[in-house]
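So, does this match?
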Amino acid sequence: MVKIDHIELPDFPLLLAPMEDVSDPPFRALCKENGADVVYTEFISSEGLIRDAAKSVMKLDIYEKERPVGIQIFGANLDSMLRSVEIVEKTNPDIIDINFGCPVKKVVSKGAGAGILKDIDLMVKLTEAMVKHTNLPITVKTRLGWDHDSIRIVEVAERLQDVGCKAIAIHGRTRAQMYKGDADWGPISEVKNNQRMHIPVFGNGDITSPERAMEMRDKYGLDGAMIGRASIGYPWFFNEVKHYFKTGEHLAKPTIAQRTEMARRHLQMSIDWKGEHLGVVETRRHYTNYFKGIPHFKEYRLKMVTSDDPKDVFATFDEVEQKFGDALIPKIG
């Protein structure tokens, strides 16, 4: 069993990563149904929360069926972060997560996200203050370091643990790498193997198959996997990993009809939560993966990502279902 503070999780839990414009309530619900053990919200600006910005406040929506659920916030100003903790507490999440890993320029330029990796003392100070400011468990998501020459993640993780951080998720790249090159899980394993570490250490980055998840567990010895891009438009990924762990075999891939039904549900849930326009527009990023690998699919995909009227998108789903039915996507090669 793995524990984040008092929260009990199964051995080697699978966590849905916080992803901007992806990890919203509809998608989190689908991932939870399909095996995710913990889900996290999109990251939320502490400055946006204290200004009561509509987009930031909307991201606080969480539902009972998602639990355990973490709300992730980012920022570099101590007062703003503490005030945002007070706002977040009112929504009663299970976990508050701090984003010390986002590599995007507009976040980093303000010293937030991965930008704070250039000031480890401030990173530790912020974490300690937030731990003292709430009874909810505080966790951290970060990267190996700012660049290759400044990787101090073993020391950083230990310092965060020592000020009360209850779990750490580490992406196996530096900020300088962004999402290029291969994720390096070696330094994350070094964090886990530090005899002074007793909090869960989760790995993130390039977990693209059940085999890779097993490698993270068995070769690198980590406590769990935080799944990001592999789940976009493919919430089945979590159960596929669990099935592989249990049996050593691959779970049957969803049929095109099952993919269509999942996309249909996803769109309807998004419309119910965000309204028609945002629901249609912000679900488009998932369709490539929902229908990846189907031959001669371009015309259908084009309709899905260019139609602004949900009726047209639903009609396209119906067309796909009628044309392909229960067929499986053919294997390539």
